[in-house]
Design goal:
Layout (H helix, E strand, L loop, with lengths): L18 H7 L6 H10 L3 E6 L13 H12 L4 E6 L9 H5 L3 E5 L9 H12 L4 E5 L6 H7 L7 E13 L13 E10 L9 E9 L5 E12 L2 E6 L12 H14 L4
Parallel strand pairs: 1-2, 1-3, 3-4, 4-9
Antiparallel strand pairs: 5-6, 5-7, 7-8, 8-9
Helix pairs in contact: 3-7, 5-6
Amino acid sequence: MSNTTASPLVGGDIRRLSRRTLLGTGLAVLGAPWLQTLAADRPRRVVVWSEGTAQQDKVYPDDINHAIADALRKQLPGWTVETAGINDSEQGCSEDSLNRCDVLIWWGHKRHDNVKDEYVDRIERRVKQEGMGFIAVHSSHFAKPNKRLMGTRCSWGAYKTDGCQLKVRVNAPDHPITKGVGDFTLPQIERYSEPYRVPEPEAVPFAGTYVYPDGKEEPTRVGFCWTIGKGRMFYFAPGHETYPNLYRPEVQRLFANAVEWAAGRS
């Protein structure tokens, strides 16, 4: 019987190994070009996270993360699309999962404070130091990872669930996130009024106009882009759990575009 310790690559899928695992086995000494080829062969992976509170409104019976993930699977061939949530092991933010994640999409609403700081630390490290993309949706402007990455309170001027209309306008037609998306209208939405207290975005791919039930109009920004350290970040303001806006084809297309854009630096 041999006393040699078996390599973790034997009988395993080499594409699933994280960079940390590779460094631990000493494989980095084989040279950067070999590692770059390995990374290029690994399927890109996006994880859609949710706190699990949207199901009670029945608009998203399988939760918002599943609605987004189902659309991404159709829009992003060749990607691995997975879901995670606050009730999973390590609240869906394990080291292994995040290390293999190219883009993390986050939806939260009522349980922001329940997310443990140690997991927020992991997300911050992956974005700032290692280039993971991060996409925040709607009420996730108050999520701990979003506030950590922005470095501000991330508050809006006012909030109103009055079922007003939102006319979405392509504000940056040459931006990758707007590719294949024209102007569109969301018939009902929870209104977030300016100002949005965050660092100045490097791009605003989508802007728009709220149309109140009484006909009054209010301009707003809808989509925001930043570079945070080595990573890219996108925030999309629509996405309330009582309105089916995440099923709209224009919204699904822009989310797929945002995933590919956010993964560009990882």
